[in-house]
Known about the structure:
The chain has 416 residues and is α+β, with helices and mostly antiparallel strands. It folds into 2 domains: 3-199 and 366-407, no CATH class; 205-344, Aminopeptidase, CATH 3.40.630. Helix content is 32%, strand content 25%. It has helices at residues 3-6, 58-67, 105-117, 143-163, 183-187, 208-215, 218-232, 249-262, 272-281, 327-341, 354-359, 376-389; strands at 32-36, 73-80, 86-98, 123-129, 168-175, 191-202, 237-242, 286-293, 296-306, 309-317, 346-349, 363-373. Strands 1-2-3-4-5-12-6-11-10-9-8-7 form a 12-stranded mixed β-sheet, with helices on both faces. It starts with a helix and ends in a 27-residue tail after the last helix.
Amino acid sequence: MWTHVVHRMTRARGGGAPPTLAATGGGSDGGSIEICSRAELARYRHWQRAFANRRKDHRYYEVVEDTIRQGFDYRYFVIKDARGGVRAVQPFFILDQDLLAGLHPKIRAAADVVRGLWPRFMKMRALMVGCAAGEGHIDGTDGAAAGRNAGILAAGIRGRARDLDVGLIVLKEFPAMYREPLEPFLDAGFVRFPSLPMVRLNIDYGSFEEYMRKALSANMRRNLRKKFKAAARAAPIEMSLIDDVAPVVDDACRLYLQVFERSKFRFEKLSREYFCGLARRMPDRTRFFAWRQRGRMVAFAMCIVHQDTISFEYLGLDYRIALDVHLYHYVIRDLLNWAMARDYKWVSSTAVNYDPKYHLRFKLDPLDLYVRHTSGIVNVALRLLLPLAEPTRYDKTLKRFPNYADLTAAPAGHQA
């Protein structure tokens, strides 16, 4: 994710193409924005309805603020109409951001030499609109509302950033369906470019076996069956759905951190309080899974379900056995079988680890970043530098996906 550089709308049941938003005109609409804290949100009843049509509603943002600190200063924009009525609430957070984090290692090495003399070189205070743990969304009941709210936010956000003594403004990882509603930000001097995308898979099949037979290549089917035979020769591994994550949260975090520490790109680091908070606050949407071998937990997954989609959010693996028993594919098979048996039609999964997802026939689900500096002069330089730092240009696997061009496609009827 380019969150490491500058820090979906689900469908109704029935399957179909990835989601889109209706065309909108945007515009400031005579509205205004004000900044408030979480405590101050209590006086706005709208917050209890915010993002209700997304898998991560207002409760998710509260859990993130309560459990993921890491130097983040969480705030909220309250978007109001011309009469002062609350139209939307837009979460954001402030942090110190390293603008060189996504560059090629050789370029970063050269920059490190400069930082030996100038420690703050290409580091600045940034305002991130969106979510610290996941993709961003514009609060609004439909595409038209999202466009109007985006227009009001775009018109006022630069002044508010200056009030907060922030130089860099980032809309963090917004799905491609927002490209048209967010055009007011391009008019306001922001540059849009791709972050590392999520992926999406149609799972409208009766079982994993049917999915393999109809969706995967012969070579991939043979490869998977070899992996599963190798796993079958080891001690049995059994999956279970966890009703209460608290008693096993230490094991879950131990496995999650093994995957986290191997990641090339890191941003938020989850805590035991995060998993327990989600289980307590969002039991209708969160699902926790454990895989045990000889009584010991060897894999863990946290998923969110909403409408016809199951989203694979975080995975933990015990790398003492993971490679020998092909644990990643073992876990994916079990999760897909579970989801198919419950009539989910789509899987959404987070960024990175693209090679196995490519072979499993996932498609890219683009995420965009919108960036500008509050200074017009500095913004000109950033528009030249930032595209060099975006990580999709360095990932060769992404280019193999059939819809790779979607990462930079213009909205329907518009030119990039």
